[in-house]
Amino acid sequence: MAKVIVNVDDAVKVEASRLYESMGLNLSTAVNMFLRQSIVDNGLPFTPKAAQRPFTRDTDGYPIVKFNMDDPRIVTPKVVNGGVVLPEGWDDDDD
């Protein structure tokens, strides 16, 4: 059997070893399973993704959300004398 030498952070090794031990595996068996599954999948046995970035926040700590104002689904209301005028075709069954 061939040996594979991998450099990993000490904390990662400890945490991964604990995880696999809780599943009844040792680190060597888990790595062997990973490599075998990579062969079966003809690639990584999972889809790598970049971590989702948190919202950029303003000086008060509120998230800054950007909208595409050219999107036809975004309706900018008409304001007259401080009140919003709804479109004529807008029908609200609640009133």
Topology of helices and strands:
Blueprint: H1 10-22, H2 27-41, E1 78-80, E2 83-85
Antiparallel strand pairs: 1-2
What would the keywords be for this entry?
mainly alpha, single chain, elongated, 6% strand, two-stranded antiparallel sheet, 95 residues
Describe this structure as you would to a colleague:
It holds the Pfam family RelB. InterPro entries: Arc_rbn_hlx_hlx, RelB/DinJ. This is Translation repressor RelB. This protein is mainly alpha-helical. The protein has a domain at 11-41. The protein is built from 2 helices and 2 strands; from the N terminus they run H-H-E-E. A two-stranded antiparallel sheet has the order 1-2. A hairpin with a 2-residue loop joins strand 1 and strand 2 (83-85). It is elongated and about 80 Å long. The model has no long low-confidence stretch (mean pLDDT 87).
